[in-house]
Amino acid sequence: MFTGIIEAMGTITRIEDSGTNRIFWLESPISQELSIDQSVSHDGVCLTIDAIEPGKHRVTAIAETLLKTNLSQWAEGNLVNLERSMLMNGRLDGHIVQGHVDCTAICISRHDKNGSWEYRFSIPAEFAALIIEKGSITINGTSLTLYDITDTEFSVSIIPYTFENTDIQKVFPGSAVNIEFDIIGKYIRRLKQFE
To answer: What this chain does, per the record (predicted)?
Structure first.
């Protein structure tokens, strides 16, 4: 379980294929503090640490993860948002995030607002019921607030701190990002199917 508040950024240093799996090595300021078998959000995808070297850690994505996320597009040198799982004795500064990506969205615009940035994204229409005005969404693991929604599009605003300390800075029109919708909304939609 995560909060969507990014702790650090990592850089992909090596990518290897192993059968249908893809192995990623990342260098980050928190790699030395991680432990094998620990769950860490990588751009919103919950991945298990399976090896550690000085200043680096390794994770493996299986075929299903590569299919449902943007990890198949990752390349050496890419920045990745990192967040360790939340402690149950602290504040929940973002919202409840599972690290289970629902789909990818495509950035359709990015505007510098002279002090903030506005991004607009398109999502598959099948997820329209999961976005609400001023609701929460996770983009590449970052907890953000939605506005100006339609059935297939929404906008988010990015403050300077978030822009400088997450990989949203690498997102431009045409970029695919990982999306996790609010878990409460997903449960409500499921319950309504039985009414």
So the answer is: Catalyzes the dismutation of two molecules of 6,7-dimethyl-8-ribityllumazine, resulting in the formation of riboflavin and 5-amino-6-(D-ribitylamino)uracil.
